[in-house]
Amino acid sequence: MKTVMITGASSQIGDFLLPLLQKDSYQVVAISRTQQSSHDVQWIKANISEPKTMSEAFIGADVFIHIAPLALLPPLLPAIKEKGIKRIIAFGTTSMFAKKQSHTLIEQKTVAELELAEKAIHDYCQQENIHWTIFRPTLIYGCGKDKNISFVAKTMKKYHFFPIVGQASGLRQPVHTHDLAQACLQVINNPNTYDKAYNLSGHEILSYKDMLERVIDVQQQTAWLVPIPLFLFRILVKVAHIMPAYRYLTPDMANRMNQDLCFDHQAASEDFDYKPRSFQPPKV
Fold this sequence. Notes:
Layout: E1 3-7, H1 12-23, E2 27-32, E3 41-45, H2 51-57, E4 63-66, H3 77-82, E5 87-91, H4 95-98, H5 105-128, E6 131-137, E7 140-141, H6 149-159, E8 161-165, E9 171-172, E10 175-176, H7 177-187, E11 196-200, E12 206-207, H8 208-219, E13 224-228, H9 230-240, H10 252-256, H11 266-272
Parallel strand pairs: 1-2, 1-4, 2-3, 4-5, 5-6, 6-11, 7-10, 8-13
Antiparallel strand pairs: 9-12
């Protein structure tokens, strides 16, 4: 029985990954900032943003899966090496490409952190002979914890409308969290995936507007997509930004409504038979 240690285990991907690992006879050690408990999973309460305290929480494992923000992984690598872990699977995001031209400082900082993190992981693991695989998902959805599809659905449910800019014609490929969790199992022992990064997108390509309309259909209630000028959308974002729950919203989100953000997952399909589903938004 192999042991898998997971950071960010209480995240939306973790919700699907933990039971899949258990079903496949892996022993699971889950790390979370909040106290958790579940059958057959060893939970460790720790803050991964504090590497010194994390080194005490680490135990020996065969595989390390990092679902938490990618920028938090490089400082943990020495502790991973010390425990003799030789296999790492981590999650980045295609935002490092999609937000490359953003004018928002916080998004520029995020892109820079992602690029530095990927390079640091590559360099350290190559030096220490640790096999790594990085996944870069597109728009994640599936269990109501995301800040994209779920945000849209909850906004429509509460206000019965959602603002869009222009035709909202930018293409998207939403990816389900279960497909991402399944990808982890597919690459754990697959040498074809060692020391590589993969873009993981959904099967279906649809416009931002079509994506929103499907969300409306699933909720089975009346809601409208309301076209508004760009300047007004930016004002709405600034107003919403006052509330802590909406601090992640940025004015550049409006610009991206009409930009194509599609990413080919052919390499993943060839190397580990990645087969994502079509867009199936849940009801909230």
